[in-house]
Design goal:
The complex is a heterodimer.
Chain A (H helix, E strand, L loop, with lengths): L4 E3 L2 E4 L5 E6 L6 E7 L6 E7 L2 E5 L7 E4 L6 E5 L8 E8 L3 E3 L3 E5 L1
Chain B lengths: L2 E3 L4 E5 L4 E3 L2 E3 L5 E8 L6 E7 L7 E2 L2 E6 L4 E6 L8 E9 L7 E2 L3 E6 L1
Parallel strand pairs in B: 2-12
Antiparallel strand pairs in B: 1-4, 3-9, 5-6, 5-10, 7-8, 8-9, 10-11, 10-12
Classes of the chains: A mainly beta, B mainly beta.
Chain lengths: 110, 115
């Protein structure tokens, strides 16, 4: 069964450093998303991506964040200068009506 | 604006019993989709079931069924014959439109299955 994959599963970084979270969506899906879940809280939408451009972004998705589809399979989320409050589980998802989530990357900013 | 409400922060259920997890929603869009996801302690988000607003029948997937009551804006998840492995956090979520828009999530219900 096709699935969304994410790497790394866990990333520890120092405040101010750049991180890139990687995702491989399901191959025939056209819509991609990033969500985050701060520990113990609900899942929050960050950004959606279609046809090589951002289709919608939330207030959380400020200038520190960017997304890219560098090739035909990968979808990345970059955080330019991490802050302590960026510590969270980051989920990638892809959709063909039903939205499937990857296993998540746990980001810890120290 | 969209809103998802899950009123049960936690539930304890005896193994093999059926369990109903409550979810109500609010939207002004006549076209929408409703989702349930399971999040075990390992953290991944597992898709369980989907119901479109124009679907005539309640969605079912194995032991999961979605009790869709459109007039009441209710989308409860029913798990039949619960198992110990069903212990997890369960999130109700919705999407405005039937396309590929973002999903908004409820706060979740933590389900504990007792042996």
């Amino acid at each position: 069964e096709p699935e969304v994959t994410q790497t790394p599963s866990h990333q520890v970084t120092q405040m101010g450093q750049e991180v890139i979270l990687r995702c491989v969506p399901i191959s025939n899906h056209l819509y991609f998303y990033w969500y985050r879940q701060i520990l113990g809280q609900k899942v929050e939408f960050l950004v959606s991506f279609y046809n090589n451009e951002i289709s919608e972004k939330s207030e959380i998705f400020d200038d520190q964040f960017s997304v890219e589809r560098p090739d035909g399979s990968n979808f990345t989320l970059k955080i330019r200068s991490t802050k302590l409050e960026d510590s969270a589980m980051y989920f990638c998802a892809s959709s063909d009506l039903e939205q499937y989530f990857g296993p998540g990357t746990r980001l810890t900013v120290t | 604006a969209q809103k998802i409400t899950q009123t049960q922060p936690g539930m304890f259920v005896q193994e093999k019993e059926a369990v109903t997890l409550d979810c109500t929603y609010d939207t002004s869009d006549p076209s929408y989709g409703l989702f349930w996801y399971k999040q075990p302690s390992s953290g991944e988000m597992i898709f369980l079931i989907y119901q479109g607003s124009y679907d005539q029948q309640n969605a079912t997937e194995g032991r999961y069924s979605l009790n869709f009551q459109k007039a009441r804006k209710s989308a409860n998840l029913v798990i039949s014959a619960s198992q110990l492995g069903d212990s997890a956090m369960y999130f109700c979520a919705m999407r405005d439109g039937l396309g590929d828009d973002k999903i908004i999530f409820g706060k979740g219900t933590r389900l504990h299955i007792l042996p």
